[in-house]
Write a structure and sequence with these properties.
Blueprint: H1 12-22, E1 26-29, H2 38-47, E2 55-60, H3 65-74, E3 78-81, H4 86-122
Parallel strand pairs: 1-2, 2-3
Helix pairs in contact: 1-2, 2-3
Length: 125
Amino acid sequence: DDGYEILMASDGQQTMQLVDQHQPDLILLDIMMPRMSGYEVCSQIKGDPARRGILVLIVTALNETGDIEKAVNAGCDDFLTKPVNRLELRTRVRSLLRVRHLANERDRLLAYLEEMEHRVLRGDG
């Protein structure tokens, strides 16, 4: 009800197919999935320059320090343990998307400032 389009996958390979077909802004990813673990999916996404910008929020029943460290090493942007509080999940999703939007806006403004600087230095701005 927050206006998000939600796609669901039943395993890691289907997740990768959906990523390629839809280029989502954010993925809620379980670590324990058939055919390809969430760690593997996250590593593939974050290891590919074309997909690297996709936010990955890992949601899992595993909550040992080693599990969290492995998820962070795979490149996840955030981590939640089950059972998930719906308010906390919504807050984390909104926060991740807001940070992404602000980073994109910063990059756009920096590119504009660089272009203006070049125009001034060339004498045509």
